[in-house]
Design a protein that fits this description.
Largest sheet: 5 strands, parallel
Strand order of the largest sheet: 5-4-3-10-9
Number of helices: 9
Number of strands: 10
Helix content: 40-55%
Order of helices and strands: EEEHEHEHEHEHEHEHEHH
Shape: globular
Distance between the termini: 59 Å
């Protein structure tokens, strides 16, 4: 069990609900993942209202807590307005805050992110800020009222895995009492296990599951990887060494050896 924003959870895997081939696949993938928190965009839209109705019905039927996001917002004003609409629609003060500063790699705008986070925190929101792995940005977000940090591993949807483990390790070591969830850029279950082995509290991903050939089995694979990585971290993993050390004791003389 672990706790985030005052809520106790069993699963440390958070997943998104976008880009699945169908609402049914999305629903089955969420169930297979064991995730208790799923993200959803207020800006979700489609050309077929009937399909959208099925999506929302599938989402409401799941035993999960919704984490609305401000995906697609490029300004403080836009992000704050979207967050307030999401609070009314989903009846939650949780918000995954995204303020995009670059359309090429979807990197967050650090200045706008801090400003929007402060406005929303003062308005009673529990802000989950999508950020880069920058230490100073993390400090500014905490000063703005955030109690959770969500640094990326790599750009959204890139599947590159952790591109800067040193920076993430620094964040984890500097803010030991702050829940930190690695968000974006994880493409393989091994990437999720690596993040958990570094001591992070959870991971959030979408594309790697939604676009897999078998989304349901991939969701299960990520669930197992997260559990394995966390168990490894809690067990105390052996450090890397620059020299060999035999795993079998060599002290003494074997009983069959003759002089």
């Amino acid at each position: 069990m672990w706790k985030i924003a005052g809520v106790e959870l069993k699963s440390r895997l958070l997943i998104g609900t976008a880009r699945y081939p169908s609402p049914e696949v999305m629903q089955n993938a969420v169930i297979a993942s064991g995730a208790e928190i799923v993200t959803v965009s207020l800006r979700r839209h489609g050309s077929n209202p009937g399909v959208q109705n099925v999506f929302w019905d599938s989402l409401r039927s799941l035993p999960v807590r919704l984490l609305p996001n401000t995906a697609g917002c490029h300004s403080v004003k836009e992000a704050v307005a979207t967050a307030k609409m999401a609070r009314e629609l989903f009846d939650t003060n949780w918000i995954k805050l995204e303020v995009i500063g670059d359309d090429y790699n979807l990197q967050p705008d650090p200045f706008g992110l801090v400003q929007a986070a402060r406005i929303l925190a003062e308005d009673g929101f529990e802000v989950f800020p999508y950020m880069t792995d920058d230490l100073v940005l993390a400090e500014r977000l905490l000063d703005a009222g955030c109690k959770i940090l969500m640094p990326w591993a790599a750009p959204i949807g890139s599947g590159q895995g952790i591109v800067n483990p040193g920076a993430l390790r620094t964040l984890r070591q500097r803010f030991l009492g702050v829940p930190i969830i690695v968000d974006a850029g994880l493409g393989k279950p091994s990437h999720a296990a690596e993040a958990m082995e570094l001591g992070f509290d959870g991971v959030l991903l979408n594309t790697a599951i939604a676009l897999a050939e078998d989304s349901v089995h991939m969701a299960k694979a990520f669930s197992l990887a997260v559990d394995a990585g966390r168990t490894g971290f809690e067990s105390g993993m052996m450090p890397a060494r620059d020299f060999a050390e035999p795993s079998t004791p060599v002290v003494g003389t074997p009983f069959w050896r003759k002089k």
